[in-house]
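Quick one: co-fold with NDP.
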Amino acid sequence: MSDTSFDYDLFVIGGGSGGVRAARVAAGEYGAKVALAEDDRYGGTCVIRGCVPKKLMVFASGYAGVAEEARAYGWDLKEGPFDWAAFQGKLNAELDRLEGVYRTLLAGSGVETFDQRATLQDAHTVKLADGTTKSAKHILVATGGRPVRPDMPNADLGIVSDDIFHLKTLPKSILIVGGGYIACEFACILNGLGVEVSQYYRGAQVLRGFDDEARGLVSNSMIENGIDLHLGTNIAEMALASERPDGPTPTTSDAAGGAPAPEAEANRAGSGPVWVKSTNGTETVFDLVFYATGRDPASTDMGLEEIGVELGRRGEIVVDDYSQTAVPSVYAIGDVTNRVNLTPVAIREGMAFTKTVFGGEPEPVDHDLIASAVFTQPEMGTVGLSEEDAAKQEEIEVYATSFKPMQTAFAEQSARVLMKLIVSKATRVVLGCHIVAPAAGELIQLAGIAVKAKLTKEQFDATCAVHPTMSEELVTMRTPTRTA
Ligand code: NDP
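Sure, here it is.
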């Protein structure tokens, strides 16, 4: 039963994966009167400028080596050029289709939508950009995050991940800054698509926080595949190459080749080749610089702190286990809370919120043992503790094997894969599983069930192998590689 003293039972701000799911379930399953405001495209980061277009680019990039490999198997296939414009047209059409699906799902659940920015006026009132106000018994903030550039002179010369999908042409050369998910994934994607990729990462090894052995293999593979990876390196200075008459002559072919299309141009990003001086003193000119230096919660200028919602150091909305903020009628889910910034997690947080608030069954969000994948080439799939973190916690056995998989070994390629289990000595429970291999994202989804279920090494071993596969090693490793 709706509370008639408010315009809505629920007002959701943000039409990404988390917000849309919460709105649909609250309206469709619990019969709540729901509205949702979105000032950009429906589908949010994941669908419009993240996971979905990125994965389609991963697929596009993955065809790069197909002809060579197929020849080793007897096929008469020849390499051809990659047509970015043709791919981009199809990509945009697919994103339009998906956005349409999101709008249809909301309308079909009876959610009223407002295509404009919304801010909070008080604990129960949302103010829309057109000046109208709407009252709601509950307000859910699901505004996500946005990419950030480092605070340094001329940082606006660099593009961010939002811009990459709008490039009019692919650059001949690119410098990617960062060593996280986005930096490594796009280094591999663009390398596969034929761009000369350099990557600067300030730390000692990319993919900080992941298992050392696994990220070491990813890093080595990236270098073997042709990415010019510089560890312990950052940008010291940068400027438009055209504004440095004494600087090195650009070696790039197409001055503004990588410029984003006008709609993505909010600054000087992509306005010409960029001269970069690195922290170790080298000077290079790149067609494009791409900052993949992290994302911040999108919580600014929303009136949150003014009404008493607490924000953390990075601007994240502070919530309890039920996604409730310091203002009881205001909840927040997804990247704006900076808990585990992954789409399926935002969706689960949205589901737990609706169950708690509209289903009368308080459900805390379970953030334990979430499997995830980094879509590098090769992919890395991971769930649970790294060897390093597990060893700090208790005595462990490590079962690991690295080998050349049958498919590419036959084609005389040097690519290696890694299958690794971290096992508790005391309980025999598998504490972590790390896979570096083609399709590791698919494999870790399944291994994740076993690790989430806290199965023991002996239960893994009781599972008969599927032969011949790469992942059969996960159930056939008999002796520990080492203990720690
Ligand atoms: P990450 O936080 O993963 O990585 C940011 C990288 O930038 C780190 O290597 C960091 O270095 C570096 N960095 C930060 N500030 C600076 C600076 N001032 N100068 C130089 N380097 C800097 O962020 P991403 O943007 O890659 O991804 C954001 C989030 O999006 C991820 O955490 C993940 O949750 C999600 N995501 C998930 C994907 C997936 O599931 N496949 C794909 C893409 C994104 P340092 O390590 O030293 O801090």
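If it helps, Residues 150, 177-183, 185, 201-203, 208, 234, 292-295, 341-342, 372-375 surround NDP (CB under 6 Å).
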